[in-house]
Amino acid sequence: MPAPTAIVIGAGFGGLASAIRLSCKGYRVQVLDKLDAPGGRAYVHRQDGFTFDAGPTIITAPHLLEELWTLCGRKFADDITLKRMEPFYRLRFDDGSWFDYSGDEETMRREIARFNPADLPGYERFIEAADQAYRLGFEELGHKSFNRITDLLAALPSMVRMQAWESLYSMVAKYIRDPKLRIVFSFHPLLIGGNPFSVTRVYSLINTLERRWGVHWAMGGTGALVQGLVKLLEERGVDIRLNAPVTRIRVEGRRATGVVLQDGEVLDADIVVSNGDAAWTYRNLIDPHERTHWTDRRIDSRKYSMSLFVWYFGTNRRWEDVPHHMIMLGPRYKELLDDMFRKLKLTDDYSLYLHRPSATDPDVAPPGCDAFYVLAPVPHLGSGTDWQREAEGYRQKIQRTLESTVLPGLGEHIVTSRIMTPQDFHDRLWSHRGAAFGMEPVLLQSAWFRPHNHSEDVRNLYMVGASTHPGAGVPGVLMSARAMAESIPEARDVRHD
Ligand SMILES: Cc1cc2nc3c(=O)[nH]c(=O)nc-3n(C[C@H](O)[C@H](O)[C@H](O)COP(=O)(O)OP(=O)(O)OC[C@H]3O[C@@H](n4cnc5c(N)ncnc54)[C@H](O)[C@@H]3O)c2cc1C
User: Can you give the pTM of this predicted structure?
Assistant: First the structure.
């Protein structure tokens, strides 16, 4: 009997990890992606001698990647060199002061004391609470699929004990008094599309995750991790087909039976896994009459994460005093987040994340040069912004901000440049409303309330990636692949009817 077949739509981290897991379970796997290279949000742009990772740059929880190498009988360290960052990153406030966020407890206490020594005891209590959130959210619930209501009911007592309905910012404010330190300990969910004022306090687990496993840079860039996963798949004989947009998932008798490509080609499969945005997958790839749960109405009534404006640029000089990772906070915090998440308003002020990989890895830029990207969180396309018209003006504004702060004279040194707007998240990555991180991670859109790893509507259809449980971020999507694979039987146990 030939092994059952699986089609994975999408070669993002979630899709590649799923393909490895399914291949290890004995399925014959084919990965399809609409783009001309794997990686999805972790696509790599190479231009004019510079290497720009399009998306993820902060690698945490490397053991989740190592696990995939081990599954394939390989050693992660033979293929990938990870460099631990110290400090993890710098948070720069609008008045020019900064906080170096470190994995070293002594350094952290020194940094806190520079702002407000009276907050040191509160910090210790915050750490204890974050550790508790880590045990619950990461160790206990992160890898579990929430396909059944009983999965939710089993988790409820722990959630109640933790008062999971409380927002992360409220939790931080209980322990920390200094307004700047409150930002330092609450901004993390923004890295995965969450508003610190509305995500559950369970997200304080990110703090523990980083302290426990470190913050790393993959030498060669995040693209080296993608290439590493692709190599594992190639060694297992898994076909990765690029330039292959899937426009329909075939459903017969409420079972997924394969996919249809944009050019009309039909591919059969025993199971289909979508690593595409869940809202897009349901809304655009599955006929409405096949969907009783994820109806267009339900999809449209959900809240979506913010989007991102990203400007990648290379300079013909180096800026040695700029660290690898820097968060540059604007004059407003809560109000800016309200405008972005609730009012869907593109504002004149912003907070930025400035990435300078050549600080750690000179090979990503020609000798004597720096590669950068700067990212501004912005509302998703519900804002009505015409990005084709606005993009260049917005980029210039960000350039002026950088010139007047950390990169004086920048304009004279730019030798290469490209941008990505919310419209690209929509048109290129097929993300509903151009959201960068899928549905917003609020409590009632998490765990059982998030699109299930095993489709609520279609048997043999599985969902993986940022818009499913547990959520966005490289660790999140790797865990979603594990949760998804655990809902799928071993190939030898699949009966062909
Ligand atoms: C700018 C940016 C910075 C980030 N920084 C970090 C960071 O530092 N650390 C971190 O952990 N996370 C970070 N993230 C989040 C992280 O990158 C994502 O959550 C994660 O990479 C998403 O992976 P995924 O597998 O869900 O999907 P994606 O990477 O989105 O991949 C989905 C793939 O599916 C393909 N696809 C979709 N629909 C179809 C279709 N119908 N047919 C064929 N192919 C299809 C797409 O082309 C894409 O390649 C960042 C994200 C962005 C955008």
Answer: 0.97
